[in-house]
Amino acid sequence: MCGTDAPDAAGPVSNGSHASKANPASSPYQNVNDFISNVARFKIIESTLREGEQFANAFFDTETKIKIAKALPVSSPQSYEDCKTICGLGLKAKILTHVRCNMEDAKKAVECGVDGVDLVIGTSSFLQKYSHGKSIAIIKETALEVIQYVKSQGVEVRFSSEDSFRSDLVDLLTLYKAVDQAGVNRVGVADTVGGATPRMVYDLIRTLRGVVSCDIETHFHDDTGCAVANAHSALEAGATHIDTSVLGIGERNGITPLGALMARMVVTAPDYVINKYNLKALKEVEELVASAVQINIPFNNPITGFCAFTHKAGIHAKAILANPSTYEIIDPAIFGLTRYISINSRITGWNAIRARCEQLGLKMTDDEVKEVTAKIKQMADIRPLAIDDTDSILHSYHIELQKKQAQQV
Amino acid sequence: MCGTDAPDAAGPVSNGSHASKANPASSPYQNVNDFISNVARFKIIESTLREGEQFANAFFDTETKIKIAKALPVSSPQSYEDCKTICGLGLKAKILTHVRCNMEDAKKAVECGVDGVDLVIGTSSFLQKYSHGKSIAIIKETALEVIQYVKSQGVEVRFSSEDSFRSDLVDLLTLYKAVDQAGVNRVGVADTVGGATPRMVYDLIRTLRGVVSCDIETHFHDDTGCAVANAHSALEAGATHIDTSVLGIGERNGITPLGALMARMVVTAPDYVINKYNLKALKEVEELVASAVQINIPFNNPITGFCAFTHKAGIHAKAILANPSTYEIIDPAIFGLTRYISINSRITGWNAIRARCEQLGLKMTDDEVKEVTAKIKQMADIRPLAIDDTDSILHSYHIELQKKQAQQV
């Protein structure tokens, strides 16, 4: 949806880890200046309101859409200034639309007065056969005609293939080269079925980078658990844009999650990510979206999952206390969270609940923590309660508390 | 825990996708015979009962451990025969233990009568400084002494470094080469903090493959969402073993999840995976472990997540109906599941609940489905209910039904 298309200060590529200040330069992965890599100058195309609406349980009303758009962490001081400048021009935002690659759809899109049109067509043999039934020659001819029309109307144009990794490589490159020469602003590569691996992604994007001169956008589904790693590989190979959605919601089990990508990139390129994104906003937008589509934040979610910064005491405890970087690649504080060293008690214990409240930044007195712990135990008597349910109970209890306090004032 | 250390028929490497029968040979990713790759002859070291116990909320009693061990999907006819043969020898299983690399711990381990000792030592500057305080020279000297002792007792020995990706490359290779020459059965590489990327993994394992002749085990944490992709890259580079746990439970947000790795590998090497593993057992062991450590199966879990095989009707519907492979890289049937095409209704609707029951293989009459739907709605009145809570409600209702029926018979 709202990509941060503001021009970036494309600084030198840094492959240092988040903990790089303390890290020895002797690591073979430091100080690699790979000039094709965009890991420290990527852009995010936040698609919660597009791909996310394809999630089985997503039915966003206008109010929810506005809430989500406002809560997205693309709001560093610089992004805010960029937004204000654009808003000052009388525009609300850059409005793009996603249409099938044919003249009829393109004309409708242009008539709506959009700023950009994103043309999409399936290029795999599956989609050629079972979806639109067109040959590559016809696809290319139509694409060039539609692109010429859209450009003639003074509108931005992007061209994406669908199911790119099950498409014939020569077909793909032929198409992309033709649309690049015809002047598209960006080409898109999509792993529509979620079957690509990081090396497949690196190879295709690296090859494509040598064929087109425009920006390259990438879109990865997570069916085989590789959507975050594939995005990272794409950037290393020269892709410029990554599609994400909050918690990854999308068709089937979704796409590259915004939060997990932030976790990945803040380790790869800490300065770029910390300066560009308001990482402390992540937890809130995830909770907003989770509640809108009625899901729990997964227990194993990077950054915001129940246990992401929980260390179980034992062999690790001494080292963690001496220096958290020994067993932690990301400092929770940059996401506005805290670490928690668990002391061999089930998480439903009173002390554990208090620690979780502190981790979430929910201020409560000891009596209040005891009361909400009792509530959690009561709930657990009705049905088996998962630890990741606890967060939502804590949050609703905290909201109630705040309401009561507001009434008393 | 119980690795399938049975000898494999190491067939030719196939990079075909699951849908390869229908796939055109023109895909650039087909028919690549990379002779160093182990993607079609890997072994899994199932660590739910080791790494999994480091998960914040894991406190397994003996009964639970036995249940989990029995439910693991490493139970193809061949694995079963292997197990029977081993059991016939009067052994329960091969018993390995994980100890710090020093003579005292190694002696204790050997005195316990274990079959193998896995020596572990931190090699990163962080761990050298904040954990054990030893230099690489001392680590090497101690390791060789301990290895010689363990071997002299007729016990198998494995040597792993900890935090390998933040260790000095030359230090690492020197150590691994020395322990390989000293005759260890396997070396281990561990991304203890979860910061590695697929290309870092490929490079290190590819280099190591040229330095040691023994097996290579790998262990990936998921802090930056790359644990599945890193495991795949390691196999491509010549690693032989991958550590997993059910749902990935482990320290912090855990390690490579067994189920997600199965999803990944069944696409990369379908014949190998389908013949070796009983994939239909996955759902049950995940539910068992989730319940034991009080977590929900994440909504976006590959294979078993609520929406993994749910397609939202729309642009995709026609093609999915004509040929599911158009928008599905994995056939749900091989995991004993079914696909579901959602027809624009919130998942809590009665028809959606019926579809989910069918997907989970829970047999209920329409009246029973209506009753459980009412229960779900009732529960939702008490507190906001997530769709991924629904599975556990459906399962407990179904168990109740079965109990009632058993009483009536």
Automatic annotation (TrEMBL), chains A, B:
InterPro entries associated with the record: 2-IPM_HCS-like, AIPM/Hcit_synth_CS, Aldolase_TIM, DRE_TIM_HCS_fun_bact, Homocitrate_synth, LeuA/HCS_post-cat, PYR_CT
Comp. bias intervals (Polar residues): 14-26
Start and end residues of each stretch annotated as Disordered: 1-26
Signal peptide: none
GO biological process, one term: lysine biosynthetic process via aminoadipic acid
Domain Pyruvate carboxyltransferase intervals: 42-283
UniProt-listed Enzyme Commission number(s): 2.3.3.14
This protein's UniProt keywords: Amino-acid biosynthesis, Lysine biosynthesis, Magnesium, Manganese, Metal-binding, Transferase
Domain of life of the organism encoding this protein: Eukaryota
GO terms for MF: homocitrate synthase activity; metal ion binding
Reaction catalysis annotation: acetyl-CoA + 2-oxoglutarate + H2O = (2R)-homocitrate + CoA + H(+)
rRNA processing as UniProt keyword: no
Requisite cofactors: Mg(2+); Mn(2+)
A cellular component annotation (GO) from this entry: mitochondrion
Pathway(s) of this molecule: Amino-acid biosynthesis; L-lysine biosynthesis via AAA pathway; L-alpha-aminoadipate from 2-oxoglutarate: step 1/5
Family: Belongs to the alpha-IPM synthase/homocitrate synthase family. Homocitrate synthase LYS20/LYS21 subfamily.
UniProt-recorded name of the protein: homocitrate synthase
